[in-house]
Amino acid sequence: MLRKMKGEKTVEILLKVSRKVCSSLELENVIDMILREAKSFLDTDYSALFLLDEDSRHLVLAGAIGFKSDQIANLKILGSWERINIELVKRVKAIAVNNIQESLAFKSKKIPFSSEKLPLGAFLAVPLKTDSGIIGILMVSNHKKRKKYFTEEDKKLLSTLANNVSIALLNAKLYKNTKSMFLNTITSLVTAVDAKDPYTHGHSERVALYAVGIAEEMKTLPDFLEDIRLSGLLHDIGKIGISDSILSKSTMLNDEEFKKIHEHPNIGLRIVASVINSKNILGGIAEHHERFDGKGYPRQLEGKHISLTGRIVAVADAFDTITTDRPYQKAFTAKEALLEIAGSAGTHFDPGIVKAFQKSFSKHPDLWKFK
Fold first, then answer.
1. Are both 293 and 242 inside the same structural domain?
2. pLDDT, tens only, 45-76
């Protein structure tokens, strides 16, 4: 009965770990969760994950936990070590070694983890498999001073965990590749939009940089920084649906033309929402022309009803716009733009965002063109 209860508890933990790992598509997050859960699950000192390089067919270190910085270089050598490749990649077999120095398979070999720089006494490594073959290995290990041995049960448990998380790892790799292709496509689109108006060349890239600079002063999370960067990059994507004659007009726009220009946030929202469902990213695209006092467009949102990305991109966009020469306006200096935006806090802009902008301006003058 006790053994049955222990088995049920193990299955419960495995399912919980698998669900947790499969909840993310970001490769770095998936790798970090696999490493932490494997180390915790088997109560080991270290964990490491190697992914198979498709060109060299060698294992490349993707992440590790528990090791010191000066041990990582030796750990990386394991990926190109033939013995590991033979056992795990070619034979698709798990390896459990409880005394590296006494193991028949390893004691006569010059191995990277035998030195003081990587003082491992025992390790357990299992292949990560998918239908298309081996994609890597997961390894847990203990310090040579720790007398804890890996059992056949441990080998089965880590192999089961590896089988459960392999698909999540593969999906995350595919997602990363797809995301990279998407970003390349988006960058090309942004360049095309900026090229429609000779006065806005590089505008979107600069707005993205400024928006990130402001967000960093607000101590936002890394995921938000990526969202605000993309939102800034894409904020004017809707201008691809606006006539060139309006965008490049050298005189003041008439009422009808202003009405057309005011459509670009909604056009951009429709374009990007078809491929991205992030509220943060979409908020900056749809709401960067809203005003804190509710007198903006296209929806006349007020105060905190405007998304955080919308309020940040509004300041970043305004700064770049007024520091760039336009047909109807000579460029402000960076200092003049700073004072102009600060003077509009509470009306046009969120005072909190303006404060973060001022801090960034002070700390990183080169970013804001202030010499």
1. yes
2. 988 888 877 777 777 888 888 888 777 777 77
Sign of the C-alpha dihedral computed for residues 215, 220, 225 and 227 taken in this order:
negative
Query: Per-residue confidence at 84, pLDDT binned at 50, 70, 90?
Result: low
Strand segments (E) across the chain: 46-52, 59-65, 95-97, 120-130, 133-143
> Residue 364, by phi and psi: left (phi above 0), alpha (psi -120 to 50) or beta?
beta
- Per-residue DSSP letter, 283: H
Cβ atoms of 3 and 17 within 8 Å: the answer is: no
Note whether 33 and 19 are within 8 A (CB).
no
Dihedral, CA of residue 319, residue 320, residue 326 and residue 328, to nearest 10: -20
> What is the predicted pLDDT for the residue at 281?
93
- CA atoms within 13 Å, Cβ hemisphere of 343: 6
Look at the chain and report how many structural domains it folds into. 2
Owning domain of residue 84: 2-169
User: Do 158 and 50 sit in the same domain of this protein?
Assistant: yes
Q: Are residues 43 and 129 in the same domain?
A: yes
Gyration radius from the chain CA atoms: 27
